[in-house]
Amino acid sequence: MNDTVRRALPPLALVLLAAAGTFALTMGARQSMGLFLGSINSATGLGLASISLAFAFGQLWWGLTQPFAGMVADRIGAGRVLVIGVLLVALGTALIPFMHSTAGLIFAIGVLAAGGAGMAGPSVLMAATTRLVPAEKRGLATGIVNAGGSFGQFVFAPIAQGLTVAAGWAVALQSLAAITLLALPAAWVLRGHSNAPATTGAAAVKKESAREAITRALADPSYRLLCAGFFVCGFHVAFLATHLPGVVAACGLPPEVGAWSLAVIGLFNIVGSVSMGWAVSRWRMKSLLSLVYATRGLAVLAFMLAPKSVAVMLVFAAVMGVSYLSTVPPTAGLVAKFYGPANMATLFGIVMVSHQFGGFLGVWLGGKAFEANGNYDWMWIADILLAAAAALLHLPIREKALPPRALPEPA
To answer: What's the 3-state SS for the chain?
Structure first.
């Protein structure tokens, strides 16, 4: 990156504050919604499976919006996309208490809130960060941005629980919606698009169209394996975010343990995300991903065998927190390493679609499993098997930068 481009960029600390802060607010609101599942069920009487369907659709829609949001951000700028996304998150969250049907909950939770969080989500934020920071600092920068989402979960979960106790679940949701609007100023800092001055390497070659970039990526076995592994990540984290309060209740523990468990996941994921952001510049990213998935599988196995107490629940949350979203920096790093920053938001958005297909199944099957058996044992077994599969899937990935595709100049 030359000196002229460096001078044109906003300060690194401001970029990280804007991106991490936005992710903290949108992710914190989304990841705290599992705390309201029981209250929504009591207020509507729809049943756990029907309400889980709305949350599951939200997981899927959050992923499906990201490649399209990424395409728009790559062309017209991240700032406008982020403004629309934040407004939709706030609107959808505020409308949840007024929805008394499955279709209404799908619209508020699944379409508005989740769609807005997808527009103001990792694909746009990671791409904006990658574009605005020097290449040698991208690994740590993406780790810090990812940690922002975890910090949001750490802060929002106890706030949501406290507001619910003090003023009721409806007021708590509407308060979270108002807090989310604090992310709007960040859009100005992160404005701009990938047609701005770029770095060297793949981005220095004449830019591919989104269709050409997608075609090239989908033809690459390493990219497909990356998508498959991220599917497993989505299954794990969406199940935990939505059903961990239910797991706590099924273990006979007080409701506040569910809120603190989610907060502990968020707190320890800050450690995991920042550490992973530091590690990706020192070790092979595919090996780090295999290690994360293997750790998850072993942690779930230990939890299944251990007696269920408050201490065990919080230790389990801490271990899962370290690995919770620490998959994002190496996954985003591999996409950037393969294809450069030019279509980063689009290509990472497609990886996020795979993640959220897994999230859809994790949330929906979690509700179905509990209604069928009165416990989550089958989900834990599925978690272990999928973690083992993901750990193995990343090993064949060829971790080297792909040669930039030279496009013919127009006549």
So the answer is: CCHHHHHHCCCHHHHHHHHHHHHHHHHHHHHCHHHHHHHHHHHHCCCHHHHHHHHHHHHHHHHHHHHHHHHHHHHHCHHHHHHHHHHHHHHHHHHHHHCCCHHHHHHHHHHHHHHHHHHCCHHHHHHHHHHHCCHHHHHHHHHHHHHHHHHHHHHHHHHHHHHHHHHCHHHHHHHHHHHHHHHCCHHHHCCCCCCCCCCCHHHHCCCCCHHHHHHHHHCCHHHHHHHHHHHHHHHHHHHHHHHHHHHHHHCCCCHHHHHHHHHHHHHHHHHHHHHHHHHCCCCCHHHHHHHHHHHHHHHHHHHHHCCCCHHHHHHHHHHHHHHHCCCHHHHHHHHHHHHCCCCHHHHHHHHHHHHHHHHHHHHHHHHHHHHHHCCCHHHHHHHHHHHHHHHHHCCCCCCCCCCCCCCCCCC
Boundaries of every domain in the chain: 3-192+209-393
pLDDT in tens, 199-257: 444 444 456 677 788 888 888 899 999 999 999 998 988 888 788 888 888 888 887 88
Q: Give this prediction's pTM.
A: 0.69
> What's 3-192+209-393's CATH class?
mainly alpha
